[in-house]
Amino acid sequence: MTKDTPLPPKLRSFIAAMPKAELHVHLEGSIGPGTLLELARRYDRLHVLPSTDPNELHTWYEFVDFPRFMRIYLTISDLLRTPDDFALIVERHGEAMAAQNIRYSELTFTPFTHTDYQDKGLTIDNLLEGLEAGRAAARQAYGVEMRWVFDIARNMSFDAGGRYDPHPAERTLEYALRGREFGVIGLGLGGFEVGAPPEPFAHAFADAKAAGLLSVPHAGETVGPSSVWGAIDALQADRVGHGVRAIEDPALLVALRDRQIPLEINPTSNVCLHVYNRAAVHPFPHLDRMGLKVTVNSDDPPLFNTTLNDEFNLLAAEFGYGAAGLARIARNAFEVCAAPDTLKSTLLAEFDAWAAHAVPEAEAA
Question: pLDDT per residue over 107-134, tens digit each?
Answer without folding.
Answer: 999 999 999 999 999 999 999 999 999 9
